[in-house]
From TrEMBL:
It comes from Lacisediminihabitans profunda. It comes from the Bacteria. This is Phosphocarrier protein HPr. It is found in: Cytoplasm. Residues 1-89 form the HPr domain. The lineage of its organism: Bacteria, Bacillati, Actinomycetota, Actinomycetes, Micrococcales. Its main location: cytoplasm. GO terms for biological process: phosphoenolpyruvate-dependent sugar phosphotransferase system. The keyword Hydrolase does not apply.
Amino acid sequence: MPERTVSVASSIGLHARPAALFSQAAAKAGVPVTITNAAGKTVNAASILGVLSLGVDHGDQVTIAADGEGADAALDILAQLLGRDLDKE
């Protein structure tokens, strides 16, 4: 299963708006995507409540993983999204 480890660039981490944007993108990815925080908790990336429950702050590293056809492309898009400050967009 392909995965990417990314530092979260949003100034407040994955809270509120950034978490919503990320979850929406994960839901549209066309493959199941998970996100894991540094403590090892894994949730469905398409679930905003799951993403919020991870408590990811600015600069924290997360690992996103996907399985299925198109997983690498989906992970590339999601990794780029996490690498931007979504609070300023």
